Amino acid sequence: MQLKRLVFSLLVVILILSATSVAVFAAEPATFDIAVETTSTADAEGDLLVKPGDRIDVSITITNNPGVSMLEFVVAYDSEALTLNGTPEGYIYNFTNGKITHDVNAGTIRFVSDMGATANLTAEGVVAKLSFTVKKSFHGDSAVTLTRVNAINKDWSVVEYTSDALDFSCHTLGEAVVTEPACGVEGNTTQKCTVEGCDYAVVT
Questions:
Q1: Which string of DSSP letters, residue by residue, matches 106-149?
Q2: 46-56 per-residue burial string, b: 16 or more CB within 10 A, e: under 16
Q3: Quick one: pLDDT at residue 118?
Q4: What pTM was estimated for this model as a whole?
Q5: Surface-to-core class of residue 71, CB atoms within 10 Å of its CB (0-12 exposed, 13-18 middle, 19+ buried)
C-alpha cells in the first residue's frame, strides 16, 4: 500500500514539473532579427570604408520572423556625416497607409506600418531602403543605427528583437605606395589617409 502511495506521489510530482516546464517554454518570447545592411564595398577586414562624396545604399532587413502584424522602427544617422538622398521606401509591411517621416535636424527616419493588420506577416527580407551621400566635410567614424523598434503580433503581444547597426569610416586615401618583396620581407601596397593627423592606412 505504501509503495502504491509512493508511486502515486512521484507521478503527481512529475506531472507538476512537466506542466511547469511547458508553461515556461510557452512563455518564452518570440524574437526576430532586424539589421542595417549595405551592398557598398567593404575593406579587407569587413569594415565599410568610404570617402567624402560616396553614396551608401542601405537596406533594413528582417530575418527569423515569428510573425508580426504591426511594425515601427527608427533609423538614426549622423546628419553631420550623411545627407539623405531622395525618399525612403518601405516594403512587406504597409508603410504607404502607415507613415514614413524624416527629421533632418535629428537625423532620424521613422517607419510606422499600417495598424489595420489582422494577421501575422512572416515575410522576411528587405523592409526598407534608403540612400545617403557622405558629406564632403566629414572625416572619421560614424554609423547608421536602429534607435527604436516596436513590433506586435495580431494578439497585441510584443515581439522581441535583436538589431545590428552599420558602422563605417570615412577617409581620403592618397596614392598607393608599393613595397616590392625582398629577402624575408613580403611585398604590399599601402594607402594612407591624407587628412593631417590621421594615421589610418589600408595595406593589401
A1: TTEEEEE--TT--S-B---EEEEEEEEEE-TT--EEEEEEEEEE
A2: eebbbbbeeeb
A3: 73
A4: 0.76
A5: buried
